[in-house]
Amino acid sequence: MVYSTYNSSNEIEGGVLLGRTSTPPRIPVYVKQTDFLRHCLIVGTTGSGKTSLAMRLANELKRYGASVVLDWYGEYSHVGDYIVDVGLGEPVAIPIEDPLDAVFLLEEVLDLSSPQAYLLAKLLKKPKDLERVIDLIETYEPEARWEVETKASLMRKVSLLLKYGKVFKVVQPSEVDRLVEFSKGRLTVFNLSNLKTLELRRLVALGVLNAVKYLKERGVFKDSVFVVVEEAHNVMAKSKFLQKYLAEVRKLGIGLIVVTQSPAGLDYEVMNNTNIKVVKALKSADDISAISKSMNLDAKVASLINRLGYNEAVVEAPSLIEPILIELT
């Protein structure tokens, strides 16, 4: 097996212990908490332990700021300090400043065509219109032949968001600080498992990410925020929004921990914008190829990925000389 040279200077104040090198002398492998503000990617097949690792990181990183989890399957409720059961209580606040931001958000969530996005932009005159978008579409009288079919197809897609009741509300960014509260030392879990459709989960996930960004931009929350995005291939697949988000929020003190079983389902730029990569066992040749390309792994190291044990991972981080095989703690 191939191991990298370990840089012992990583055992420092403010470091997060990932594990130890797999062979003697079994040196502890630390990653600086500030490196997590440049984003982290955890990949692994179902049952490989990637969610357990993300839970541990979220708990450890809350020492340095607030931890937030977008929990796709309701797996984090037992570790959260504050749980938001989305869909069962109050609607989640989604900050939108401009109607075009609402159009862009739905374009991402629903994979709208250009004609559908154009028609939606005609209908949404103010951000709050998003809450009654079905009524606006239903009452719209098409002005051209192409708008007839576009109206029908847009209605089918938008109905996926609102057919199960009101789970979100549109607010101005200035209102976010009294509706969404984070605090240093607290792990806040947004449980999305009660939402019936993939599109609703994506909408709420992107809405929470926007809320975190607005709070940091306006200086409402001073400390770092670490956000775990579970099932990221469902949230970020080929997403222009997330590419831009990952690039912009570094300077704000927001670090994403992107968790996925399918790195091949992520945009290549999303993977490249994560400076820490933790690779657990993968079986799909496409997934192994995608992560190997992103990390520039040689063939010998890449060949280990489908044979990694439950507690093993290949790790890349700015404070490591090169990717290293470790046993996780």
Compose a concise summary of this entry.
With 329 residues, this protein is an alpha/beta fold. The chain has twelve helices and 13 strands.
Instruction: Provide the low-confidence segments as ranges.
Output: 1-11
Q: CATH top level of the largest domain?
A: Alpha Beta
Q: What is the assigned CATH homologous superfamily of the largest domain?
A: P-loop containing nucleotide triphosphate hydrolases
Task: Give the strand tally.
Answer: 13
The fold-level CATH name of the largest domain is: Rossmann fold
Query: What would the principal axes of the Cα set say about the shape?
Result: globular
Q: What summary fits the major beta sheet?
A: 11 strands, mixed
Strand content bin: 15-25%
Kindly report the average pLDDT value: 87
Number of domains: 2
Tally of helical runs: 12
The CATH architecture classification of the largest domain is 3-Layer(aba) Sandwich
The rounded Rg comes to 21 Å
Structural class of the secondary structure composition?
alpha/beta
Strand and helix order: EEEHEEEHHHHEHEHEHHEHEHHEE
Distance from first to last alpha carbon:
20 Å
**Helix amount:** 25-40%
Q: Which strand order does the major sheet show?
A: 2-1-13-12-11-3-10-9-4-8-5
